[in-house]
Design brief:
It is built from nine helices and 14 strands. With 256 residues, the protein is of the alpha/beta class. The longest helix has 12 residues.
């Protein structure tokens, strides 16, 4: 904590990764900060079990963003963090997964530093690693995959590039992990096939990864859209594409 030129109190903001949902996967450091926090601004995908770890005397602010339902704009959230840090020693920005993996943590950290606010990042386990593990899908395997690509399936208006080059991504590695792409799979899959993946390439959709209500939908690039429509499979979910998906039937021991 410091004092600025006008003798105004300045606290510290912690960008904390909550992990993918299982409360046992948050780091000890992250849990400790939550227990000490004065203010916690948290996202929609932070599980209730993690929220329950927050200091009961702390002010809790829901700044969650879900597809089609944005409670706060990114600029509003950053402004809120800056304002709260003016009068509170410990301000936590609690994010699902890891702050620096499709979590906008880099953007928020830049703005906070530019505003003269002290910031610390506490990493979390990202869903793209944890959810496949809980589904019995290793992202790498000596017989099937020695490389992984993580990519967002959600395109932001005004982004630095118009779209992900899915035809190039198709050949980038042997395993693809797509975040926030369930609603766009109908557009993504034809481009992956155009880029060289076959229609029978395995794909797994994992919803609410690592939580007790985790769900998996296993298919191929040819069948998965029809399967999704049949069972009304919706976000939040990640997609894993590649031969490693076939190991799900052998290694998915968590529901046996």
């Amino acid at each position: 904590m410091t004092l600025n030129s006008t003798s105004q109190f300045i606290g510290k903001v912690y960008l904390v990764g909550a992990g993918p949902g299982d409360p046992g996967l948050i780091t000890i450091k992250g849990k400790t900060i939550l227990e000490q926090a004065d203010i916690v601004v948290y996202d929609a995908l932070v599980s209730p079990a993690i929220v329950a770890m927050i200091n009961p005397q702390a002010e809790q602010i829901d700044a969650g963003k879900r597809c089609g339902r944005h409670s706060k704009l990114q600029e509003e959230t950053t402004a809120l963090l800056i304002a709260k840090a003016q009068n509170n020693p410990i301000v936590v920005r609690l994010k699902g997964g890891d702050p620096f993996v499709f979590g906008r943590g880099g953007e928020e950290m830049t703005d906070l530093i530019n505003a003269g606010i002290s910031v610390e990042v506490i990493p979390g386990i990202t869903s793209g690693i944890a959810a496949p593990a809980y589904a019995g899908i290793p992202l790498t395997h000596r017989d099937y995959s020695s490389s992984v690509t993580f990519v967002t399936g959600h395109e932001m208006v005004g982004k630095y590039r118009p779209q992900v080059n899915w035809t190039a991504i198709a050949q980038a590695s042997e395993t693809l992990v797509i975040y926030m792409g369930v609603h766009n799979l109908g557009n993504i899959i034809p481009q992956l096939i155009s880029g060289g993946l076959t229609q029978n390439t395995p794909i797994a959709l994992i919803r609410w990864g690592t939580r007790e209500d985790q769900e998996e939908l296993i298919g191929t690039l040819e069948t998965i859209i029809e399967q999704m429509e049949k069972v009304n499979f919706e976000a939040p979910a990640i997609a894993v594409i590649g031969k490693v998906v076939n190991l799900h039937h052998e290694l998915n021991i968590y529901k046996n």
